[in-house]
Design brief:
Keywords: Membrane, Transmembrane, Transmembrane helix. This is Methyl-accepting chemotaxis protein. It comes from Marinobacter nauticus (Marinobacter hydrocarbonoclasticus). InterPro entries: HAMP_dom (IPR003660). This protein is mostly helical and 185 residues long. The protein has a domain of 66 residues. 91% of the residues lie in helices and 0% in strands. It contains 2 helices and no strands. The longest helix has 104 residues. It is rod-shaped and about 215 Å long. The N and C termini lie far apart (217 Å). The model has no long low-confidence stretch (mean pLDDT 87).
Length: 185
């Protein structure tokens, strides 16, 4: 019986060892297959991401080589996380494009206003020059008028003096005539 038990125990140990060995072989095989699958998936995903990034980088190079043309966009056909990145970047460029268009329009309007202000300033300077000439002419006329008034005042004063002299002569003449009349009488 002991032999039978030993034999069964030996058989059980051999079966367990064989099962363990088979399980280890299966486990190693599963790990190797899993590693091969993971490496293959990594290569596929890496190439996919690398290809997507190369497509985006190529579009960015084309955009950067232009003369600041904000109408071009990144072209990307993928449907992954990079798609969202590309869409957000394209929206950003669109907003920049609109902002620059608004700035260009404002600059055009400011140029128009500056041109109008320059024209208005030239017109105002011409008018100021004309007014200065008119004021100078008026001042000269007023000075001539003052001289004429002074001359007339001088003539009037002289005439007044002559009138007073004539009045004195007339009074003296009248007194002499009256004196002569009285002498005759």
């Amino acid at each position: 019986m002991r032999n039978a038990m030993e034999s069964r125990l030996t058989q059980a140990i051999d079966d367990t060892t064989a099962a363990s060995s088979e399980a280890a072989t299966v486990s190693v095989t599963i790990v190797v297959v899993a590693l091969v699958v993971l490496i293959a998936l990594s290569l596929i995903i890496g190439r996919s991401v690398s290809g997507s990034l190369q497509q985006i980088i190529s579009s960015l190079r084309n955009m950067a080589s232009g003369e600041g043309d904000l109408t071009s966009r990144i072209e990307y056909t993928g449907k992954d996380e990079l798609r969202d990145l590309v869409d957000q970047f394209n929206r950003f460029v669109e907003k920049l494009h609109k902002s620059f268009a608004t700035i260009q329009q404002d600059i055009g309007e400011l140029n128009g206003v500056a041109t109008h202000l320059g024209s208005t300033s030239r017109t105002n300077l011409e008018r100021i020059s004309q007014q200065a000439q008119a004021i100078s002419s008026t001042r000269n006329s007023v000075e001539e008028l003052v001289k004429s008034v002074e001359e007339v005042a001088g003539f009037a004063s002289s005439a007044s003096d002559q009138t007073q002299d004539a009045s004195k002569f007339a009074t003296t003449g009248q007194q002499k005539v009256e004196g002569n009349i009285q002498t005759i009488q």
